[in-house]
Design brief:
Blueprint (H helix, E strand, L loop, with lengths): L2 H6 L7 E4 L3 H15 L5 E4 L2 H9 L7 H4 L4 E5 L2 E2 L5 E2 L6 H9 L4 E5 L13 E6 L4 H10 L3 E4 L1 E2 L2 E2 L7 E6 L6 H9 L4 E4 L1 E2 L5 E6 L2 E6 L8
Parallel strand pairs: 1-2, 1-3, 3-6, 6-14
Antiparallel strand pairs: 4-5, 5-13, 7-11, 7-12, 8-11, 9-10, 14-15
């Protein structure tokens, strides 16, 4: 059984499902499409135009976030996951929509390989930050002042533009000592839309290894909903 198949077991008739972006999410969406064609009745909310196009090809009914209001579960990938199940996302360029959809969901399930597991966020040396185009140069200076090394993302030699019409600064970073503090500092910069830090959002991580799928869940405390 793959991680995508394991995630598919959580989907029930009537669910509204957030559809992530990237390789792991694409595998899940394809398998979900097979189930829909077999009679599973769900609605999807796509986190990117690429995922929306794939869902349409697979006959997965799509609704907007406004129409859905709330989602039962979102299934997505991640670029880093730490022992607390906090994550960095955005290498695929859909971080803002991914975060909005995840925040609208009762559960967030991340599908990763073991190479994505890190002892501390930032271990892979890259944190994407989405920026309003008008403010990208200011943001780059302010991010540099925070000790980061921002580089404007390019695609085929051209400035990469997100589905929201924004730019992405890929920020070189060492392991992040305090992700929550860094998140606040970055958000204080005018023109920043959001960061690839997904803190306190993940419920379950499914890790696809050579011997099967390992499941890790965020511990629930008495104060947790």
């Amino acid at each position: 059984m793959t991680a995508a198949e394991r995630a598919l077991e959580t989907i029930e008739d009537g669910h509204v499902v957030g559809l992530g972006t990237g390789r792991a999410a694409t595998d899940f969406v394809r398998r979900l499409g097979e189930r829909v064609q077999q009679g599973l009745r769900i609605k999807g909310v796509a986190t990117s135009e690429v995922t929306a196009q794939l869902a349409a090809q697979l006959s997965i009914p799509l609704v907007t976030l406004e129409e859905a209001t709330r989602l039962d579960v979102t299934v997505d990938g991640a670029d880093e996951v730490d022992p607390n199940l906090d994550a960095i996302k955005g290498y695929g360029g859909a971080l803002v929509r991914e975060k909005i959809v995840a925040a609208s969901s009762d559960r967030l399930i991340l599908l990763v390989g073991p190479e994505k597991l890190v002892g501390q966020l930032g271990a892979r040396g890259r944190l994407p930050v989405e920026i309003v185009p008008f403010g990208w140069s200011l943001a780059a200076r302010r991010l540099s002042a925070l000790g980061m090394k921002p580089e404007q993302r390019l695609h085929h030699g051209q400035v990469y533009v997100t589905d929201n019409g924004n730019y992405i600064l890929d920020c070189g970073t060492p392991a992040i000592e305090s992700p929550a503090k860094l998140e606040r500092e970055i958000h204080s910069i005018p023109g920043v839309v959001d960061t690839g830090l997904f803190l306190g959002m993940t419920d379950t991580v499914l890790i696809q290894g050579s011997e099967g799928v390992e499941e890790r869940r965020r511990p629930r405390t008495a104060a947790s909903p």
